[in-house]
Amino acid sequence: MAQSNCTQVTQFSLTGFTEDPVTQLNLFLLFLLPYLVTIVGNLGIIILIRASPHLHSPMYYFLSNLAFVDLCSSTVITPKLLVDLMSEKKRIAYAGCVTQVFLFDFLGVSESFLLASMAYDRYVAICHPLLYPLVMSPKCCFQMVTGSYLMGLTNGVGQTISMSTLSFCSSSAIDLFFCDISALISLSTSDTTLSHIILTTAASLFGVSSSLVVLLSYVAIIATILSINSAEGKSKAFSTCTSHLTTVSIFYGASFFMYLFPSSHSSRGADKWAVVLYAVVTPMLNPLIYSLRNKEVKEALRRLLKIK
Questions:
Q1: How does 163-200 read in b/e, with b if 16+ C-beta sit within 10 Å?
Q2: Mutual orientation of helices 242-259 and 209-226 as an angle, nearest 10°?
Q3: SS3 for 223?
Q4: What's the pLDDT at 269?
Q5: Residue pLDDT, tens place only, 118-131
Q6: Is the model more confident about 17 or about 264?
Q7: Phi/psi class of residue 16: alpha, beta or left (left: φ > 0; alpha: ψ in -120 to 50)?
């Protein structure tokens, strides 16, 4: 009966980090720089890979898609965050909140499966180099990337359906700087059983399966590298996957920490910074990792700029 008198909210308020104007200005500058680096870095990676024939290989095909997803995921969160830091009232319409939930969960799972695809690519390259051209054919790579986006789309639709079943009557204040499904479930005044089931199922199916592919791939890679007799051969083999391993460690470390305690992460200030690491910092670091640590990327950039 209580729900029958419920007036569904049309907008949410985002508490963000602080109400102090000086601190908000400092945070604005703090988040603006990473966002600019994210835009320039990921666009640069995409353009460089498309313009350089030497980078037209499966690994860089996956990397260009990873850069695209990082670019989009950062744009879903950061511009709104920057606007709110300069605004007195931090509000988001219900439709905008639904859009953020869909895109954030769609892109997050897509990235996890792209990283899994990249791990499998490195596994085939190091453990079965003679079969690499056959296994990692253009058709196979396209199917893996398409599958990554389809997994992300499935998750995004599922979480959007989850949000559509929730009612928000007593409160519309989200103790976070964007709309996250876990925070919305905690805020809802309706039965959240279905939403919890969808969230748990999605985390189990998508998170565990993609991370398992990465884990098994690197177990096989490490075993193969250890079986190489020469130290130079070991170093050369390991150097081909250090950039990806670094990216994987940052992504999964941040995402696992963010969702380790999904019922409480939206209500503690320290956990907001874990979300910042996942949603703002990680998309910025990926292009830096691949540009600073990857010799082929640096060489392609020198050729493109005709630097001797």
A1: beebbbeeebebbbbbbbbbbbbbbbebebeebeebbe
A2: 150
A3: helix
A4: 54
A5: 999 999 999 999 99
A6: 17
A7: left
The whole-angstrom separation of Cα 243 and Cα 254 is 17
Calculate mean pLDDT across residues 40-57.
89
The amino acid occupying position 2 is A
Return d(Cα 57, Cα 35) in angstroms, integer: 28
Q: Which letter does DSSP use for residue 131 in this model?
A: G
Residues 6+ apart with CB under 8 A from 123: 217, 218, 220, 221
- Of residues 174 and 210, more confidence is placed in 210
Residue 162: phi and psi, rounded to 5, are -60, -45
Please give the Cα distance from 127 to 125 (Å, whole number): 6
d(CA 149, CA 215): 21
Tokens representing residue 68 in the block:
């695209």
Output phi, psi for 174, to 5 deg.
-95, 120
Flag whether pLDDT at 210 surpasses 70: yes
Edge-to-edge strands, sheet with 91-93:
91-93, 11-14, 173-174
pTM of the model: 0.88
- The three state secondary structure string of 256-290 is HHHHCCCCCCCCCHHHHHHHHHHHHHHHHHHHHHH
Q: Is the pLDDT reported for residue 7 higher than 80?
A: no
Looking at residue 267, its pLDDT comes to 44
Is the model more confident about 169 or about 280? 280
DSSP labels, 38-104: HHHHHHHHHHHHHH-GGG-SHHHHHHHHHHHHHHHHHHHHHHHHHHHHT-SS-EEEHHHHHHHHHHH
- Give the whole-angstrom CA distance, residue 139 versus residue 249: 28
Give the burial string for 210-219 (b: 16+ CB within 10 Å, else e). Answer: bbebbeebbe
